[in-house]
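Batch manifest, entry 17 of 40.
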Amino acid sequence: MRTRRDRADNSSPPPTATEHTVAVDRPIGRRRIGVVEDHESVVMGLTLMLADQDDLELAVTAQTVPELLATGLTLDLAILDLRLGDGSSPTGNVELLRAAGIDTLVFTGAENPYMVRLAARAGVLGVVRKSEARAVVVEAIRAAAYGEQVVTTDWAAAIDGDPKLLDVGLSPRQREVLALYASGEKTARVAHLTGLAPQTVTDYLGRIRAKYAEAGRPSPTKTDLYKRAVEDGLLPMPQIPWDQ
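Output type: structure tokens
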């Protein structure tokens, strides 16, 4: 399957108070989406929502993540329900999808905060309630399909309320580099702002990623680093979430 984990040097500007995603340059082309959901009515609803979207294609539906992956289809995004009939865990499902190079957007009733926290920790792009308006759901799917973080109140609460987000022990200089880079600055700009050599900034970013990986909080992409910076209070949570 095609992986989209190569966005590490995204040059988009940092989000403003009126933005709801971590924006990346959207390539031209139709985004292919898979749905993992074992409630037929939800699948039908998503099918109708996306039917008239020129840039979004619901390519496959499955009742479990292994069933989805067994199709061998190239996908840009998986929409995942947290409660599946096979009893699988959100963490395990998201990790399977990440290993296949597929980003995940959780689509849930959000009735179980613990399960939402598990998904948030596993590295999903966002959490969207099934009760949201059609326009909100479609735009969240579109953003996630292009690799953008979808920041909702549920996602923010899951991160804010999770006591298991381990401190990775970044030095003050590493925290400064991370905050600048994750906010949208390019490596050369971070070097200019900090007085460091570009190669030194690159080395810092490598060490930062290694520390997060050791703490069980992998951050291979710039989007991941943005999420870690928000989780650890280095960047502010966007002020206007999707679901307001």
